[in-house]
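*Target chain*
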Amino acid sequence: MKAAREEAKKGFQEGGIPIGSVIVHTGKIIGRGHNRRVQKGSVVLHGEMDAFENAGRQTATVYKECTIYTTLSPCAMCTGAILLYGIPKVVIGENQTFLGEEALLRSRGVAVEVLQDQSCIRLMTEFIRLNPTLWNEDIGV
C-alpha cells in the first residue's frame, strides 16, 4: 500500500486526482500508476487502469497470481478490468470518501480487504474539499 500511496501523492503533485495503484506478482511490483485523467486529458486513466497499462501485456497465469493495491475503492470501470484479468485479491486503502464496486468483486470471488488507511482518507478528503467539481467529473456526477 505504501507504493500505491506514493503514486497517489505523485498524482496530487502533478495537479491530478490523488488515487494510486500497484499490481504485485509474487512480491514484486509489475505495474504502478496513478489517476492521470487531468494530466493526459484521458477518460480512462484511473489509478488502476494506469497500473494495468504500465504492467504491459501479461499472461492470464500471471494476473491470476496478482494482488492489486489501490488507495481508493475501485469504480465500475476499474472493477471490470480487475475481473477481466482475473486478479484474485484487491487491497483498498479506503472506501469512506467513495464506495466503489466492492460488492461486485466479492460476488465474483475476489478477496477484498479494506484498510481504512488514515493517510488515504486524509488525502482524498482534502482533495475533494479543494476540488469538488473535478472530483465530481472523475466519478461521473
Notes: The longest strand covers residues 28-34. Strands lie at 20-25, 28-34, 66-72, 89-94, 111-114. Residues 4 and 58 are 20 Å apart (CA to CA).
